[in-house]
C-alpha cells in the first residue's frame, strides 16, 4: 500500500515558488530552510513519480493494453528496472500474470478496478468466500486516510475510545468493527 511521505522539495521547485512572490504585485519570499538544507538535502530537480512509487497498478494497466515488453517500452521517464521486476513479481504472486508474464483472466478482472492489485484480488475472491460486504467495507476504509481522529490535547481519550473497537484478529477487522458500530 502506498503512503504519503513528507520529503523536501527540490531546488528547482524552491526557485519556482520564490519566483511567484511579487509576480503580480509587491511580494517577498520567505524561505523556511537553511542554506545547508538547500545545498545538501534538496535534489536539484524532482524525481518523477514513476521512478519512486510501486508500479504494480501501472504494469497491470499496461499489460491490459497489450504492452508486454516493459523493459523496452518507451517510458517518458523510465522507472528503475528493479521496480518493474518487483511489480511483475507482485502481479505473478497475485496470479494476475502467468509464468510467461502474460495477463491471466483474473488479471484482466483485477485491472477493471480502480484499486491496487492486491485490493482488487481481495474483492474478487471475497465473492467465492461469501464475504463481499465485509471485504468491500474494509477495502473502502483502508483506501482513505486514517478514519481515527486523534487531537493533540485529547490523545489519551481518543486512544481509549479507539480501544473499544480493537479486534485481536487485526487492524482490518478493527476497521470493520468501527464501520459496523457507526
TrEMBL record:
Positions of the Helicase-associated domain: 86-176
Enzyme Commission number, as recorded: 3.6.4.13
Catalyses which reaction(s): ATP + H2O = ADP + phosphate + H(+)
Annotated GO biological process: developmental process involved in reproduction; spliceosomal complex disassembly
Highest taxon of source: Eukaryota
GO cellular component labels: catalytic step 2 spliceosome
UniProt keyword list: ATP-binding, Helicase, Hydrolase, mRNA processing, mRNA splicing, Nucleotide-binding
Transcription regulation found in the keyword field: no
GO molecular function, one term: RNA helicase activity
Gene3D superfamilies xref list: 1.20.120.1080, P-loop containing nucleotide triphosphate hydrolases
InterPro entries found in the cross-reference section: HA2_WH, Helicase-assoc_dom, P-loop_NTPase
EC class: hydrolase
SMART domains attached to this UniProt entry: HA2 (SM00847)
Name this protein carries in UniProt: RNA helicase
Amino acid at each position: 500500500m502506498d503512503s504519503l511521505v513528507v520529503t523536501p522539495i527540490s531546488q528547482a521547485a524552491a526557485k519556482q515558488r520564490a519566483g511567484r512572490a511579487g509576480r503580480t504585485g509587491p511580494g517577498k519570499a520567505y524561505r523556511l530552510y537553511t542554506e545547508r538544507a538547500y545545498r545538501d538535502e534538496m535534489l536539484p530537480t524532482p524525481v518523477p513519480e514513476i521512478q519512486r512509487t510501486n508500479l504494480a497498478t501501472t504494469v497491470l494497466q499496461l499489460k491490459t493494453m497489450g504492452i508486454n515488453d516493459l523493459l523496452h517500452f518507451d517510458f517518458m521517464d523510465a522507472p528503475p528496472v528493479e521496480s518493474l521486476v518487483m511489480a511483475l513479481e507482485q502481479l505473478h504472486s497475485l496470479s494476475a500474470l502467468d509464468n510467461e508474464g502474460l495477463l491471466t483472466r483474473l488479471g484482466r478482472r483485477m485491472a477493471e478496478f480502480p484499486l491496487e492489485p492486491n485490493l482488487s484480488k481481495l474483492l474478487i475472491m471475497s465473492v467465492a468466500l461469501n464475504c463481499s460486504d465485509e471485504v468491500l467495507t474494509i477495502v473502502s476504509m483502508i483506501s482513505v486516510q486514517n478514519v481515527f481522529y486523534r487531537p493533540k490535547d485529547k490523545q489519551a481519550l481518543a486512544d481509549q475510545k479507539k480501544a473499544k473497537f480493537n479486534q485481536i484478529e487485526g487492524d482490518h477487522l478493527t476497521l470493520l468493527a468501527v464501520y459496523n458500530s457507526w
